[in-house]
Amino acid sequence: MTRLLLDTHLLLWWLKGDPRLPEPVVERVQAAEAEVFVSQASLWEMAIKVSIGRLQVDLQALERQVPLQGFHWLPIHNSHLLAVAQLESGGDHRDPFDRLLVCQSRTEPMLLLTADRQLERYGTTVNVVG
Q: What global pTM score does this model have?
């Protein structure tokens, strides 16, 4: 089984059928051996963005769509949070949600799929696509 963690952008693109979703993501997610996760950190990030007007999405519908897509919610555990304190500096990349996703991918372990090139520096559990 290949355990995949989708970042927030890829999840939103997947659910909307957005053409920006890279084909390699579609192939990996649809592979028979794929077990796909979405972090509760992504839901938290989207909730904040909705509350400040930077994102328009029905969060309750999104919450229901994740399991309907065959994906699993990945809870935030203390081990994930404690790993953030040990994460090497991301230089100018300080996004707390991205840093938590990286730590979840390392702790679980699973492969974080992202379109964010700034996350390449975090090593083998991060796969930048697109």
A: 0.95
Per-residue pLDDT of the chain (130 residues; tens, 9 = 90+): 999 999 999 999 999 999 999 999 999 999 999 999 999 999 999 999 999 999 999 999 999 999 999 999 999 999 999 999 999 876 666 899 999 999 999 999 999 999 999 998 899 999 999 8
16, amino acid identity:
K
The DSSP annotation for 23-82 comes to: HHHHHHHHSTTEEEEEEHHHHHHHHHHHHTTS----HHHHHHHHHHTT-EEE---HHHHH
Place of tokens 């953030």: 84
